[in-house]
Specification:
alpha/beta
Length: 123
């Protein structure tokens, strides 16, 4: 049976990675410009997660943005051997299909993070 490589937490994190509809693309971009002005692999999200930070959702995300984020977190979980954590600071307006509008994770919500379709999405 497939076990999720992402963990949803219900209390505010001490070290948040602020993710919203405006910052998500920056976190997910495959490349970034370093201090010297060169294009390099963007490992900022991985580095923050490895240091113990929690992905904190602060605004509604579209279904496609959720799948991009979950796909990246699944990849980080598999490659780094640790479960990235997600905290939903903003639950209203999230895609209805994900069932994330309640305050604490239900069985349905927990299954979203274990669902094979989340794992299979590639971009």
């Amino acid at each position: 049976m497939y076990e999720s490589s992402i963990k949803r937490v219900t209390s505010p994190p001490k070290t948040p990675i602020v993710v919203n509809q405006y910052t998500l693309r920056e976190w997910l971009n495959p490349a970034m410009i370093n201090e010297a002005g060169y294009s390099v692999l963007n490992t900022a999200l991985e580095n923050q997660i490895q240091s113990g930070a929690t992905v904190t959702i602060t605004s509604p995300l579209s279904e496609s943005l959720w799948f991009r984020l979950l796909n990246r977190l699944q990849a980080i979980g598999h490659s780094r051997g640790q479960k990235p954590k997600i905290f939903l600071a903003h639950t209203e307006g999230q895609p209805e299909q994900l069932g994330l509008s309640e305050g604490s994770p239900t069985d349905k919500q927990k299954k979203i993070f274990r669902h094979p379709a989340v794992r299979a999405v590639t971009y």
